[in-house]
Design brief:
The complex is a heterodimer. Chain A is built from 8 helices and no strands. Chain A is mainly α. Chain A has a domain of 148 residues: Orthogonal Bundle (MetI-like fold). The termini of chain A are far apart. Chain B has one domain: MetI-like (MetI-like fold, Orthogonal Bundle), CATH 1.10.3720. In chain B, helix 1 crosses helix 8. The radius of gyration of chain B is 22 Å and the shape is flat. The mean pLDDT of chain B is 89. Classes of the chains: A mainly alpha, B mainly alpha. Chains A and B meet through helix 3 and helix 8 of A and helix 2, helix 3, helix 8, helix 9 and helix 10 of B.
Chain lengths: 219, 248
Amino acid sequence: MNLDFSTLAGAQDFLWQGFKYSLSLTVSSMVIGIFFGTLLAMARLSSIKPLQLAAAGYVNLFRSVPLVLVIFWFYILVPLLTGVDVGAERSAYLTFAIFEAAYYCEIVRAGIQSIPRGQIAAGQAMGFTYGQNMRYVILPQAFRNVVPLLLTQTIVLFQDTSLVYVVGATDLLGAADKVAHRDGTLVEMYILVALLYFCISFALSQAVKRLHARIAIVR
Amino acid sequence: MSQYQWNWSVVLEQVSGTEEFYYQWLLSGLGWTITTALSAWVVALVVGSMIGVLRTVPSRWVAGLATAYVELFRNIPLIVQMFLWYFVLPELVPHTTGIWMKQSMPLPEFTTAVVALGFFTSARVAEQVRTGILALPRGQKSAGLALGFTLGQTYRYVLLPMAYRIVIPPLTSEFMNIFKNSAVALAIGLTELTFQMRQITGEYSPANPIEVMTVVSAMYLLVAFSVNRIMALIERKTRVPGYISGGH
């Protein structure tokens, strides 16, 4: 078996483009996912029953079906509902934000639940409103407790963005796949993307481990 | 959207030009999803338990290798691992083996999916098994050894029976994940449930996509719910009285 990486030089730009898409999909889904996930977590923990049930239904629904299926859902539904053909790349932004929110929600919820009840009571005794209490007392501590989990979930998310391949989007894997089929270098390209994903994910997970050790609160 | 023609009986209709019905496609897809997931789960449990145990043995060398295994399988996306097993491995093994894998291996998509999904999940199972073993008091291992058990026997009769019970909840979610992750195998052509859904909503587009997708999602929800209940039952049955929420 001879590996031939000579065609790689010509493919660099295209692969870089794919990689940039993977990154931007990861970052945007993380930001929107955490924001929306936090709202969902607050809804799940609220005392208003219908709100609680709706949030729980949302989270359980998305956590029970495969991401690939949800990618198809939005790929087919968005053009059908809006009448605009947005394409695989753009529909994926919506898919991942909505899907990941369910996973981030559960992490944030665990974070909020790790805060002693007395903290909430203390905030209320200080005259804070619900919003102020969340903003200044509960959420800062909750996030601090779960930052490593949120980041680990983001590494999983980064790897999962490769699934947009199934609707033909040009992410890192999609770009490599297109180059591979054009040049007949399937073996080289797949090994290359595997290496890239491995190096990035491994480096990030080691960094998260180190961060975890540093910010852990000694109780 | 206003002109969308709802037709909930679409899955009961016959596929035009064939003797088959859409619901038969979906049921066959569901069958492949379940078969693939269960087979891969066997691989994941066996390999994952071995690696998890190896990560806790005294030998630094062995533990290091096991850690490397876990990192390797955890840091490459599943779909890329599927492609590596399916397209790359046959080119890297000796020529005749490669030819066999490509031409005469029985059920190539299914076999590859089981191997890829099994090994992918084994790294996660290994982490859980390791956590379970490390959660036990250190005295348990010493007690086993003091009774004259070999290290192997200590693991088999003292540590693992408790460790598995401790990690049943996280294993449950891994077990549920394997059913969801089996959908990734559509990328190498396994005709599982999501593959069939794409087939019906895409190339054979007369079938109404929203109804078909809803039915398929409901099937996945049903699978997830059943798995969850079965694992809860196992957890109840294997409880040790007076230990780890054993109660009674």
